[in-house]
Write a structure and sequence with these properties.
By secondary structure, the chain is α/β, with parallel strands linked by helices. It has a domain at 3-181 and 235-265: NAD(P)-binding Rossmann-like Domain (Rossmann fold). The protein is 40% helix and 16% strand. The protein has eleven helices and 13 strands. Strands 3-2-1-4-5-6-11 form a seven-stranded parallel beta sheet, with helices on both faces. The protein has a two-stranded parallel ribbon with strand order 7-10. Helix 1 links the parallel strand 1 and strand 2. Helix 1 crosses helix 8 (236-251) and helix 3 (63-72) runs parallel beside helix 5. The longest helix has 21 residues, at 94-114. The chain binds UDP-4-deoxy-4-formamido-beta-L-arabinopyranose.
Length: 335
């Protein structure tokens, strides 16, 4: 049985990917430092899959921790989620983001090279494209200068991996996520934003649940049909399954080059007001919102051209926006 290390495996996307890995018959070991997740997620995963993954609470910024882990654990592949991911916070604390997001990546890659471990999947983001010149966004779209240290750590991370694959023959895939939303159908795992949610969907469900007074729609003067910004919202379970598809491609050595990257979205763009409307219709819950000023750093529109992932990864998003919003709502009702 192949043993897969999932760093950040108790996080939002990580936990959903662990469930899919176990369902596919992989043995999973999780490293998480619990800086942006809760230990209860481990039990919740076990309730869903009836298999409790091995878990190590480790800070991957400490090189000795990483070395010691690999000395004791025989790993066949790695999915690396562990990173700080708040765009706004990264502007305030750039060095924390570079140390954590880049340092941990370098230490893990070093161990992979030293121990001849192959099959590395990197959690990246469509944020590397900034505001793309053409929509939908393909993998050939130019990488724009990062608008935040967070986005820069994803760009730098991909460069580090590319150089390492070239120098050492490592096989790696970077998945550039669009906007992950929703929760597992069991409502046992989902998004756990700490403090005031920065992302749209957690704020929507907390407003509907009465935890937040009112949703602010950040701008209605964008160059879009209804004036609000457009994103490609992908169900987190579809996103998790893309990691399985990428892992299988690497393990079967079907990749054509050492380093490949894929846009992972639905291929469909939805505006903020379309999301609000879909949420109200799907859950029959009215949403208290107002139009507010634009949020600094936001782009007008982003949605994926998914043809490369569809053909090369043999993967396609299957769940609808309505299913994603309903699952997010059912998850919120359990908090
Ligand atoms: C979506 C849309 C907001 C909150 C970011 C990161 C990206 C990834 C996902 C980590 C935008 C609007 C939001 C609110 C609103 N993160 N909005 N009111 O900014 O597209 O992407 O999170 O990997 O890398 O950049 O996602 O959910 O914050 O915003 O109107 O209270 O919703 O303006 O148009 P974003 P988001």
């Amino acid at each position: 049985m192949k043993k897969i290390l999932v760093t950040g495996g108790l996080g939002f996307i990580g936990s959903h990917t662990v469930v899919e890995l176990q369902d596919e018959g992989y043995e999973v070991v999780i490293i998480d430092n619990l800086s942006n997740s809760k230990i209860e997620v481990l039990e919740n995963i076990a309730e869903i899959t009836e298999k409790k993954p091995a878990f190590f609470q480790l800070d991957l910024r400490v090189k000795e921790n990483v070395k010691a882990f690999f000395e004791k654990n025989q790993i066949d592949g790695i999915i690396h989620f562990a990173a700080f991911k708040a765009v706004g916070e990264s502007v305030q604390k750039p060095l924390e983001y570079y140390e954590n997001n880049i340092g941990s990546l370098v230490y893990i890659l070093q161990e992979m090279i030293d121990r001849k471990i192959d099959n590395f999947i990197f959690s990246s983001s469509c944020t590397v494209y900034g505001q793309a010149d053409e929509l939908p966004i393909t993998e050939n779209a130019p990488i724009k200068p990062a608008e935040s240290p967070y986005g820069n750590t994803k760009q730098i991370g991909e460069e580090i991996i590319k150089d390492t694959c070239k120098a050492n023959g490592l096989n790696a895939i970077s998945l550039r996520y669009f906007n992950p939303i929703g929760a597992h159908d069991t409502a046992k795992i989902g998004e756990l934003p700490l403090g005031v949610p920065q992302n749209l969907i957690p704020y929507v469900v907390q407003t509907a649940a009465g935890i937040r007074e009112q949703l602010s729609v950040f701008g209605d003067d964008y160059d879009t049909p209804d004036g609000t910004a457009i994103r490609d919202y992908i169900h987190v379970v579809d996103l998790a399954k893309a990691h399985i598809a990428a892992l299988q491609r690497l393990i079967k050595k079907e990749n054509k080059t050492n380093f490949e990257f894929y846009n992972v979205g639905t291929g469909k763009g939805s505006s903020v007001l379309e999301i609000v409307d879909a949420f109200e219709k799907t859950t029959q819950h009215r949403l208290n919102y107002k139009i507010a000023a634009r949020r600094e750093g936001d782009i007008t529109a982003a949605y994926a051209d998914t043809r490369l992932a569809n053909t090369e990864l043999k993967w396609k998003a299957e769940k609808t926006i309505e299913q994603a919003l309903q699952s997010a709502w059912e998850w919120q009702l359990k908090q």
